């Protein structure tokens, strides 16, 4: 089972964040199909932007321990509809990306969109500068850790 599945609009920073987590060179790489990268499932942005593809997201989510919903601070669209996360059988956390180039108003909007979507927690980061990535890595490890009996 994979630890996390990343979902978000085209260009929100899903693949860039994965590159940062893997200590790879940061380069724009449009995800064309579902990619399995280590413990992460990277989904194309079209899966979120076109509701008829939601069944694909639901199917892929059965392979993940947590869903990471990523909202770019610079994207002022309503990317995730209200209660979006209720379709998933696992916990969902939110990430606001591109915080290094965003205004407070943009950050507030992105935060509210993720809360409306139903995420349990919101983290802020910039995959380009690395700000907030260490905290994200820690939270991801925390939410995917095996449960002690």
Please characterize this protein's 3D structure:
The protein contains five helices and six strands, in the order βαββααββαβα. 31% of the residues lie in helices and 21% in strands. A hairpin with a 2-residue loop joins strand 2 and strand 3. By secondary structure, it is α/β, with parallel strands linked by helices. The protein is globular, with a radius of gyration of 14 Å. It has a single domain (2-144), classed as P-loop containing nucleotide triphosphate hydrolases (Rossmann fold, 3-Layer(aba) Sandwich), CATH 3.40.50. The two termini are 20 Å apart. It has a six-stranded mixed β-sheet, with helices on both faces.
Summarize the structure.
Pfam families: PduV-EutP. By secondary structure, the protein is an alpha/beta fold. The chain has helices at 14-21, 46-49, 54-61, 104-117, 133-144, and strands at 2-8, 35-37, 40-42, 64-72, 91-97, 122-124.
């Amino acid at each position: 089972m994979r630890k996390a599945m990343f979902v978000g609009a085209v260009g929100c920073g899903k693949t860039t964040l994965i590159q940062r987590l893997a200590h790879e060179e940061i380069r724009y790489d449009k995800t064309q199909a579902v990619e399995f990268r280590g413990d992460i499932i990277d989904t194309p942005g079209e899966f979120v932007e076109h509701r008829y593809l939601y069944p694909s997201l639901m199917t892929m989510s059965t392979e993940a321990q947590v869903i990471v919903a990523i909202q770019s601070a610079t994207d002022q669209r309503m990317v995730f509809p209200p209660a979006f996360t209720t379709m998933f059988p696992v916990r969902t956390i939110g990430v606001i990306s591109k915080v290094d180039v965003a205004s407070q108003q943009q950050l507030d909007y992105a935060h509210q969109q993720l809360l409306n979507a139903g995420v349990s927690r919101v983290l802020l980061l910039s995959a380009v500068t690395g700000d907030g990535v260490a905290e994200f890595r820690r939270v991801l490890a925390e939410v995917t850790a095996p449960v002690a009996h």
